[in-house]
User: Fold these one by one.
Assistant:
Number 1:
Amino acid sequence: MVNDPDTLTGVVLGGAHGIYDVHTDTGILRSTLRGKLKKAFAHAQAAKSLGKERFRRDKMLIDPTYAQRMERIEKRDSGEAPLPTRLSVGDYVKVRRLADGIGLIEEILPRQSELSRKDTGSTEKKAIQQTMLANLDQVVLVFAMAQPDPHFGLLDRYLTICEAIELHPLICLNKADLSHAVYVDEAIALYERIGYRVLQTSIADKQGVEQLRELLKEHTTLFTGPSGVGKSSLVNAIEPDMAVKTGMISDVTGKGRHTTTGSRLYPLSGGGWLADSAGIRALTAWNIPPEDLAACFVEFRPFLGQCGYGDCMHLDEEECAILDALAAGTIDEGRYRSYVRIYTGEER
Ligand SMILES: Nc1nc2c(ncn2[C@@H]2O[C@H](COP(=O)(O)OP(=O)(O)OP(=O)(O)O)[C@@H](O)[C@H]2O)c(=O)[nH]1
Ligand SMILES: [Mg+2]
Ligand SMILES: [Zn+2]
C-alpha cells in the first residue's frame, strides 16, 4: 500500500459534513473519511438482498465512482485497525485518489501542533476541546505604524496567547511608508530587545514584502491583527493569485465563501499555507490560566521562581523579583501594565 501510486500525502484545506478538500501534488481531492464510507458499505451490504446488481447499476447512474469505491473498500475492510476519525483543517493525511478530483482519506498523520477552541457547554465541566487548526506553527501579528495608530496592549495580548500555545509569533508593522509617532519606534526597539522578530512592511513601496514571503515558506501561518492595518493587502502582495485560488476552492466544495464555521487553509506558491480568519477566533478565544500568565511574558521568565512567595502573582507582593526588575527598569512598564491588565481580566 505504501508504494501504491494512487495513495498520496495531502493537507486538509477545509471541510464540512464529512467532506474534506485535500490538497495533493496532483490537485485538490474532494474526500471522505474511510469510516464514512464504511457506512456506505454497510448500506450496500443491506441492499444485496434486494438485488445487488440492480442496486449497483442504479447507484452507478448517480455516482460513477461507486463500484470502484466499493471494490476497494471490500478489499481493505478485512481485519485492519480502525483509523482516527476526527479530522481537522491542517491535518496531513494519506489519501487515495479514487477518480478525478475524488479521494478517500485513509490515514491521519501525526500532528505537530493543534489550535483548539474550548467549547464551553452548559456546564464548565463539559468543556471540550475542539481542534480548529492542526499543524499551525506561526502567527503574523499585523499592526499599522499609523492609521490606525498601533495599540501595543493588544499586541501583548496576542503575544501571550502565542507563547501559551507555543506558536511562533512574527510582529509585522505595516504602513511603514506613513509618518508615525515616536512611541512606535520605541516599541519596535522594545520588542526586538526581548527577542521578537519585528518586520516593517509597506504595500505602498513593497518594503519588507519579500522578506515576509520568505518567512512564510514551509510554515502554516495565521495572519491576525486589528481591522484596517493591511492584512488583506499584505496577503495579496505576497500571493497575488490568492483571490483566484480561493475562488477555485469554493467551486470544488460547491460552497459559498462565507462559511462561518471551520477554518480554511490556502496554499502559498512558495510552499507553506495560510490560515484564514476563522482561525483567529480560535486564537483569541484562548484563555490563559492566571498562574501561567507571567511565563507568557518572555522577559519575565528569568525572574520566575525567585520571588519570596512561591505563589507570587507579581501584583503587590513583597520580595517580588518581577516588581524588583520593573523598579530597576529591566522590565518595561508598558509590558508590566499589559500583564496586570490581562491578569485582572480588564478589557484592553
Ligand atoms: N499607506 C499605506 N496604506 C496601506 C498599506 N497597506 C494597506 N493600506 C491601506 O489600508 C486600508 C486597509 O487595508 P486592508 O488590507 O483592507 O486591511 P485589513 O487589515 O485586511 O482590514 P480588515 O479586513 O478590516 O481586518 C486600505 O485602504 C489599504 O489600501 C500600506 O502599507 N501603506
Ligand atoms: Mg482584510
Ligand atoms: Zn513575584
Note: The chain has three domains: 7-108, 138-284, 290-343.
Number 2:
Amino acid sequence: MRGKILVLLALWLLTAGASAPVRMTPVKITDGVYMFQHSQGSGNSTVVITNDGVLVLDFHIDNADQTLAGIRKLTDKKVKYLISSHSAGDHASGAWHFREDKPIYIATRNQIHDLRMQELEEFNERKNSNDPRYAGYKARELVFPDLGFDGNMTLYFGGLTFQITAEGRGHSTGDLTVYIPQKRVMLMGDLLDTEIHPGQGESAGVFFSNVKGWIQILDNIMARNLPVDTYVPGHGPAHIGRGVKDLEEQKRYFVVMRDEVAKMIAAGKSLDQIEKEFKIPQEFAHYTRPARLRQFYKLFYNQLMETGY
Ligand SMILES: [Zn+2]
C-alpha cells in the first residue's frame, strides 16, 4: 500500500512538474532595464523604466499580466509605449494587458500585416476553444499597433534614445531591434536566442525564417560596432556584459549547423535521414529545446538545395 502511494506521489510530482505554471522572472540588466525571463524558454519581455513612464518590448497574452504585475512592483509610472519585436504570439499577442495605461503600441508594417492576416485568426480560434491550454485567451482581445513603420524610427522618451530598426527578413518576415545608447543595451527580439536552439519564425502556423537573411542581419548589426554591453535575447537567459560575443555565437551557430547539414547532403543523405542521424556539434550540445531543430533541418536542407545558402 505504502509503495503504491509512493508511486502515485512520484507520478503526481512528475505531472505537476510537466505542467508547472509559467513564471516571468525579472532580471536586472542595468539601471532601469529589466528582462522578464520566461521560465520555460518561451519569449522574454523587456521593460525600460524612465522618469516619464515605462516602455515594454514583447508580451504574450498568457503571461504579460505577470510582466505588468512586476512593473507595478518596480515603479508607480504608467506604461507609455509598447513595442513588439515581431508578430509571433509569444511576442505580440499580449498588448491587451496594458490597456488601463493607454500606451502607444509601435511595430513594423510587416508585423501588422502578419497580425491581421494570421495571428488574429489563431488568437480567435484559441479564444473560442475549450482547450485548457488556451484559457489565457478567454475574454481577451488581440490589440493591434497604433504606429507602423518601415526602416528606422527614433523615439525620444524619458531622457533616453530608442533607436528602433526594422532589420529585414531573418527570423521572421522582419524582426525589429531597439538600441538604447544611454543604457548600452540592444534588445534583439528573436534574432538572438541564448543557450537554446532558435525557433523558426512563426505566426499562427506560417513559418518564415531564412538562414541567409538571419546571418546577414547579425553581420549588419555587428558591423555597426555599437557601444553595447548586453544584447538582450528573445529567448533564453541574458548574458550581462558579454556584448558582441553573443552575436558572434548566434552567427556561428547557423554557419556550423548549415555546414553539418551540407556535409550530410554531400554524403548523399535525404532530409529524412538527416532528421534521424544529425548529431548536434559539441559546442551547441548544451542548448535546450532540441525539438525546435526539426523545423530547421527542413529549412537548412531546402535552402541548400534551392540556392546553396
Ligand atoms: Zn519567440
Note: The pocket of zinc ion is lined by residues 43, 88, 90-91, 190, 199, 234-235 (CB under 6 Å).
